[in-house]
Amino acid sequence: MNPYASLIFSASLILGTTITISSNHWMMAWTGLEINTLAIIPLISKSHHPRATEAAIKYFLVQAVASTLLLFSSTINAWHTGQWDITQLTQPTASLLLTTAISMKLGLAPFHFWFPEVLQGSSPITALLLSTMMKLPPITILLLTSHSLNPTLLTTLAILSAALGGWMGLNQTQLRKILAFSSISHLGWMTVILVYNPKLALLTFYLYCLMTTPIFHTINTTKTLKLTTMMTSWTKTPVMNAALMLTLLSLAGLPPLSGFLPKWLIIQELSKQEMAPTATIIAMLSLLGLFFYLRLAYYSTITLPPNSTSRIKQWHINKPAKTQIAIFTSLSTLLLPLSPLILATL
């Protein structure tokens, strides 16, 4: 891609995100979301592969429908209340439409079908943007309207997302699809606590971004996009693969790694809200995701493929390992001792 075009699209992504997270008016928030959508579509389709073009079209159609619902919701609320303030969402129909629109934008179940296909058709770095930066504006809108949303509906969507994210990730062999279902599952954890403790939901999102960033960077550096190539990637970068294993286990939420902190705090908060059955269900559903995280960690370190592969094995990587991979990997695995400091900021 032309460097000037890449600079324009990257600046538009930052601008759209900034407009949405800093706006207090529905029209400005909608404008920021539209700028984000228009900026990411060329980045998805930049390889000119038919799969990338298909992913860009799917993403555009879903985001267009979600933006229409968002605008319709804000219009209904303005019709009944006479104001366009985001925090004054009081009309029940508008609240339901907003929840549906944001669920489509985020990829929450049962509106999740587009997300794995779009990630599969994108490059690893674009998939990272779709999994992290593109989810920040919709999550910000949910945080601003959390006091007006239906807790029962959000809890239902959260349990569905945790179940489908874990269940459908079990039979996948493409790493980007596995990480897509992992994102859906983590969105369920964020959504279940959103109404009761919005700051904790935002902390969970930040820690998820911190953990998933080194994974996408590592598979982009080693050109590992499916399980069969992951089995031999340890011959190219053994140290990076060992770090990848720890990051995957952290994403699974195993102590004493950083990923254990948000799940621990969410279960604790749900227990305080007398929602022990919900906490038990979502904790049990996380075991489904734990299975494929352990499978990925196993494949990345100590196994060889059971049969000869048709591709030529690369015994070295063409690009040197980047410094940010080491920094993000360290943060995504070693933050748990700092949990008292993190708790003090909530």
From TrEMBL:
It is found in: Mitochondrion inner membrane. It is an enzyme of class 7 (translocase). Keywords: Electron transport, Membrane, Mitochondrion, Mitochondrion inner membrane, NAD, Respiratory chain, Translocase, Transmembrane, Transmembrane helix, Transport, Ubiquinone. It is a multi-pass membrane protein. GO terms for molecular function: NADH dehydrogenase (ubiquinone) activity. Residues 290-343 form the NADH dehydrogenase subunit 2 C-terminal domain. One of its GO terms (cellular component) is mitochondrial inner membrane. Residues 23-287 form the NADH:quinone oxidoreductase/Mrp antiporter transmembrane domain. It holds the Pfam family NADH_dehy_S2_C. Belongs to the complex I subunit 2 family. Core subunit of the mitochondrial membrane respiratory chain NADH dehydrogenase (Complex I) which catalyzes electron transfer from NADH through the respiratory chain, using ubiquinone as an electron acceptor. Essential for the catalytic activity and assembly of complex I. This is NADH-ubiquinone oxidoreductase chain 2.
